[in-house]
Amino acid sequence: MGIRRRLLFSFLILFVATIVATVSSSIFLIARAVEHRLAEQTRNFAGLFRGYPGMINELFLDRARRAAGAESASVEPLGKVPAGPGVFRAPVSADLELVMAYSPGVISREKADAMRPFVIMAVAGLALVVVLGYLTAQTIARPLERLAEQAKAMPATDVKRVGGGAELDHLVDAMNRMLAEVRRAERLAVMGRMAAGVAHEIRNPLSSMKMTVQMLRETAQDAEPYNMILREIERLELTAAELVGVSQPLRKERVGLDKVVDEVLELMRRQLEHLSIRVEKRFAPVPAVDVDVARFKRCVMNLVLNGAQAMPSGGPLRVGVSERNGRVLLEVSDEGPGVPADVRDRVFEPFVTTKQDGVGLGLSLTRRIVEDHGGAIGFDPAERGTTFWIELPHG
User: How far is residue 26 from each of residues 14, 102, 268, 276, measured CA to CA in Å?
Assistant: First the structure.
């Protein structure tokens, strides 16, 4: 049975139970009221006869009977007529009483007349409950049915608002958040499998290249070009290690964040100089943090590289380490054109990029690493440029 019928039946059951209880008590009360009215009517006629004793004769007794609708009316000695159903008595004098007897049909008719308004109200109430119950069921059931129809399509599309009040709006928002997390998890799973495969293919050639360059450096007169090649190979190894270890547990150690950032900047020094990037470091004294150094270097490298690529003609890249809200803060600020408005809400999602030759994995990997460390990542757009930031706990 659908929710629409369940709601309607609930209304009907409640109304019927109320009517049954009301009618049961009303029948008893109406019977008492009818008897009270007939007894009061008999007392009124008896009072009239007490005031005018000359009216006690057959003519006036017959008029009183017809006026009251009684079957018979007579004045009898006290206690002569036994009590019984439909018999009402009232004293006329010290030794006489007025006795009015009503047939069962008259009493039933009196009770039916008294019950008629209740029956009319009950029928009208039942019709009203059916209408209101149906409208209420429609109001509640229709949004839920639309929501159920959309739920069948998950996770193919977002769930749209269906009306029905704030509660259902909150449910729709929760379903959309859950759907977004499911999609993100699916993309991350695909990314992890793809990244592990790519890393596996490039690690062995990198090892061979590194050994060859090291051997050539030992016999070379100028070792600096070979050192530069080795630094680039180490950067590729760092990237490959992160791709392989994307689903591996963290290997944390307590280090100063400024030291980690310095090592990354030194590793990227030649590349940044080639791009005409001037690095401006602003390091404040901060507590040490517990991080997986190899993975966190990848985070720093991604932010620095993004900032440098945002300024194709070169410019200042500000890298700062400080403390904010009880956490260690890393900031990388560029003076590029900024993040386009149409991707700001999705900039940390996999495969979202504004670069023609990008694949959109850098920031998504960075976000995952930061969140695995219990930190937070975000960015602050400005009139000129963008500041990406990472907050890490140091407790």
Answer: 18, 22, 93, 96
CB 99 within 8 A of CB 116: no
Q: How far apart are CA 126 and CA 119, in angstroms?
A: 10
370 versus 199: the higher-pLDDT residue is: 370
DSSP label at residue 343: G
* Rg of the chain taking only CA atoms, in angstroms: 47
End-to-end alpha-carbon separation of the chain, Å? 56
Write down the H helix ranges in the chain.
Answer: 3-51, 58-68, 104-152, 166-219, 224-244, 257-267, 269-274, 293-309, 362-372
- How far is Cα of residue 372 from the mean position of the Cα atoms in its chain? 26
Residue 41 has a CB neighbour count (10 Å cut-off) of: 19
Please compute the mean of the pLDDT values over residues 111-139 and round it to a whole number.
73
Rounded to the nearest 10°, the torsion over CA 120, 125, 127, 130 is -160
List CB contacts of 28: < 8 A, sequence separation 6 or more.
none
pLDDT digits (tens, 9 = 90+) for 3-12: 566 666 776 7
* φ and ψ of 337, to 5 deg: -75, -10
Side chain identity at residue 32, one-letter code = R
Checking if the pLDDT of 283 tops 90, the result is: yes
Question: Which structure tokens are listed for 288?
Answer: 């040490």
User: Which residues, including other chains, have CB under 8 Å from residue 387's CB and lie 6 or more apart?
Assistant: 331, 332, 333, 379, 380
Check if the beta carbon of residue 253 is closer than 8 Å to that of residue 291: yes
Pairing outcome for strands 315-324 and 277-283 = parallel
Q: How far apart are CA 294 and CA 240, in angstroms?
A: 11
CB contact set of 216 (below 8 Å; sequence gap of 6+): 226
Please state, in angstroms and rounded to a whole number, the distance separating the CA atoms of residues 390 and 377.
Answer: 5
What is the b/e burial string over 212-243, where b = at least 16 CB atoms within 10 angstroms of the residue's CB?
ebeeebeeeeeeeebeebbbbbebbbbbbbbb
| CB 214 within 8 Å of CB 230 | yes
Render pLDDT for 230-266 as a digit per residue (tens, 0 to 9). Answer: 877 876 776 676 666 555 678 899 999 999 999 999 9
Name which residue leads in pLDDT, 224 or 125. 224
Phi-psi region of 107 (alpha: psi -120 to 50; beta: other; left: phi over 0): alpha
314: left (phi over 0), alpha (psi -120 to 50) or beta: left
The Cα–Cα gap between 369 and 302 comes to 12
